[in-house]
Write a structure and sequence with these properties.
450 residues; Topoisomerase I, domain 4; Topoisomerase I, domain 2; 4 domains; 3-stranded antiparallel sheet; 15 helices; globular
């Protein structure tokens, strides 16, 4: 069956961050920093505004296409790309030039700067390796957008092997079209067997089986997030909403955060040790999961991406004139007032443990102090109990054990009533002796903690 496929959309910041995270292993902050340097770096300025969050161009930029194509093809990196003459202009939602797709947006897709593209030969030597990589991605996407469709035959091959039917599905290219701009990689996030390219075959031809393999496969959980795919998830927060009506409404919103703040949000979570890097992926730490559990128990709305997306949607509607600013502020304040009220009630009911767990910060990702371990071992011996697994490596596990089993200290107030104090603020006797010797002025919980 003959089929054709149009080029992928032009890049905005989230799509660039996702691509560079997957292909180069870059953190989202690095992609933004490199793009910013290409945009306003001294002697550079070769791309348009990098914090865009729309993948279309206004139709009045069609006139710039010949100049940008000519400027790019001067460089050795792009002169072999077979851009047709004249370039192919695609309008509308499935194309690149679409005025309606820019409604409510401040900036269009990221493309080469028409005002400096003629100077690319002189600017290129000034770029760092990373800047060249990122500009290459942006430039190839632009050239692909004005090239012909990729034409191919969708082929299903059935092979008889001793009475057993084997099937292969793939493509046989007829005309590479825009794919000639991408010789080494698939830009359209194509996955699966149907994207593979098959050799030329004839019906009834005898094939030779080489290097057969038996693969054991099993279902797998969804893959871990990379920084790039997490950016995409934040942008498409509607996917985490079950209500169908609300899902459709939130598709029009910008999701959680903005192009300029999403990388900072992820960076802040990493600095607080709620997220850590694991190869190209990022995973929650023990502390992060603990805090998630605490907040979800206190009020599920605190960790519901859909709630945040609804609030962002209100602000977006203010920008495009669908909502009065006073009404949006009142709605946000109502949600905040309700959540804060629940948190206050929960804190009063649960005592200091909820507050302590929330302010321990990054303690769960670090080992306990030697004094904490000695205190835990002492309690375990006295009570003839076994400490929990991991207590020597995780401060939060060790502290939870001390909270549960350490003796409470009774203080007598001036009113004559007794007051219970949290056991974790009581240093063990060995620490008290060390203090008297002047060898350690800090509490056993660590520097600046208690």
């Amino acid at each position: 069956e003959d089929k054709r496929q149009g080029p992928p959309k032009l890049h905005d910041l989230p799509s660039l961050q996702k691509f560079c995270s997957s292909r180069f292993g870059w953190p989202t902050t690095k992609t933004l920093a490199v793009a910013q340097e290409l945009y306003d770096g001294q002697g550079k300025k070769i791309i348009t505004y990098p914090r865009a969050e729309v993948r279309y161009l206004p139709e009045n930029l069609i006139k710039d296409v010949p100049r940008i194509v000519a400027g790019l093809r001067v460089g050795r990196s792009f002169n072999a790309i077979p851009v047709p003459e004249p370039p192919i202009i695609r309008k509308g939602a499935s194309g690149s030039f679409y005025d309606k797709g820019l409604e409510g947006a401040s900036h269009h897709a990221i493309i080469p700067n028409v005002n400096t593209v003629d100077d690319l030969r002189e600017i290129w030597p000034r770029l760092s390796i990373d800047e060249k990589k990122l500009f290459d991605v942006i430039a190839r996407a632009y050239l692909a957008a004005v090239m012909s469709d990729f034409r191919y035959q969708q082929t299903t091959v059935t092979l008889d092997v001793r009475g057993f039917a084997f099937r292969a599905v793939g493509r046989q290219p007829i005309d590479l079209g825009w794919r000639a701009a991408f010789p080494d990689w698939q830009p359209a996030d194509e996955k699966g067997d149907e994207a593979q390219v098959l050799p030329a075959l004839r019906n009834g031809e005898i094939a030779q089986l080489r290097n057969p393999l038996i693969e054991d496969k099993e279902t797998r959980p969804p893959p871990r997030y990379s920084e790039g795919s997490l950016i995409e998830a934040m942008r498409n927060a509607w996917r985490f909403v079950d209500d169908e009506v609300l899902r459709e409404r939130l598709k029009e919103a910008k999701g959680i955060g903005t192009p300029a703040t999403r990388a900072e949000i992820i960076g802040g979570l990493k600095k607080q040790s709620f997220l850590i890097a694991q190869g190209k992926n990022i995973v929650p730490t023990e502390t992060g999961m603990s805090l998630f559990g605490i907040l979800k128990h206190a009020d599920p709305a605190l960790v519901d991406p859909g709630v945040t997306a609804q609030l962002e949607c209100l602000l977006d509607e203010v920008v495009i004139g669908k909502q009065e600013i006073v009404g949006a502020i009142d709605a946000v304040c109502d949600v905040a007032h309700r959540i804060i009220g629940k948190l206050k009630d929960g804190a009063c009911a649960k005592g200091p443990s909820l507050l302590r767990a929330a302010i321990d910060g990054d303690a769960g990702g670090r080992p306990p102090t030697p004094a904490m371990k000695r205190f835990a071992n002492s309690i375990a011996r006295q009570k003839r109990i076994k400490p929990p697994s991991g207590y020597t490596k995780s401060r939060s596990i060790c502290r939870a054990f001390l909270d549960q089993h350490a003796p409470q200290k009774v203080e007598v107030e001036t009113s004559g009533r007794s007051k219970m104090r949290s056991p974790t603020v009581m240093p063990p006797r060995s620490t008290q002796r060390t203090r008297r010797r002047g060898e350690d002025k800090r509490f056993a919980g660590g520097e600046g903690e208690g």
